[in-house]
Amino acid sequence: MFRLILIALVGLAAQLVDGSLGMAYGVTSTTLLLAIGTNPAMASATVHLAEIGTTLASGVSHHRFGNVDWKVVARIGIPGAIGAFLGASVLSNISTELAAPIMAVILLTLGLYVLIRFTFFNISTKRLGERLPTKFLAPLGTFAGFIDATGGGGWGPVGTPALLASGRMEPRKVIGTIDASEFLVSIAASIGFFIGLGGEAIVPGLAIALLVGGVIAAPIAAWLVRHLPPRLLGAAAGSTIVLVNVRSLLKAFDVPPAAHVPIYLFIVAAGLAALAWSLRNHRIERAQQAAAEGEAVVA
């Protein structure tokens, strides 16, 4: 019982992060299941089953706060579902350990780009509102869905930075759209795992515990993303991507455990500094905007 309560709390924390930043639910939850001895395919299958409920709750919550672009959801979610089904079928039969370092490098690069862009350069408003082409969304969705199923998480770490980097959507819209479209990905991955592994692939108690925690956190996270400044969201998202993928690289290249803690502490310190810098600039921009509005009223 204690273990189930602990897993429910992890599910709550994971969804709070995922719903606020558009990533990390699958990565966090899968890591926990692997740590207690669940094999990779069963861990990913269990997490994706729980995500059917958590992503539905998250999508509804984000919709209520106006954080979802439903046109983008359809054009990225359907290809994502196809990719997830293929990924689940692959993971049911082979290991993807060789691909992990390559993917970590790609995601780390994207994370650094997002972190630097939103910390120091704010959001480009020149392209906000421009239509994202299907020829960009469809391959992105297919690729992200495949990685999500084979890695136990990846829809957010792949999709969120790519949409943020496009400069065509507000961070809150990116996060809400990615979370809502993940519902389709989770259903497709679960079907793929069920076909590939059968019913024994799911650990019902763990899936329910993760689901309960995630459903509780979903509306809280949606409220946070609606009210937090975009610069802070971008800096936080970039820091999270960097931390998650540096961890993957350390494991992939067998870096001595003694070196892990200093590296993690450095990344966390850099992330906190980025958040502080972003908050400072956000306050300066708000003050300048208020002054400009005051001058306009006087004029």
TrEMBL record:
- Membrane topology for this entry? Multi-pass membrane protein
Q: In which domain of life is the source organism classified?
A: Bacteria
Keyword Transmembrane among UniProt keywords = yes
Q: Which UniProt keywords apply?
A: Cell membrane, Membrane, Transmembrane, Transmembrane helix
Q: Which residues cross the membrane?
A: 40-60, 72-92, 98-121, 174-195, 201-225, 262-279
Q: Does the entry feature the keyword Transferase, yes or no?
A: no
InterPro entries named among the record's database cross-references? TM_pro_TauE-like, TSUP/Inactive_protease-like
Q: According to its UniProt record, where is this protein located?
A: Cell membrane; Membrane
- Indicate where this protein is primarily found: membrane
Q: Give the record's family classification.
A: Belongs to the 4-toluene sulfonate uptake permease (TSUP) (TC 2.A.102) family.
The protein depicted here goes by the name Probable membrane transporter protein
What species does this protein belong to? Tessaracoccus lacteus
Q: What is the lineage of its organism?
A: Bacteria, Bacillati, Actinomycetota, Actinomycetes, Propionibacteriales
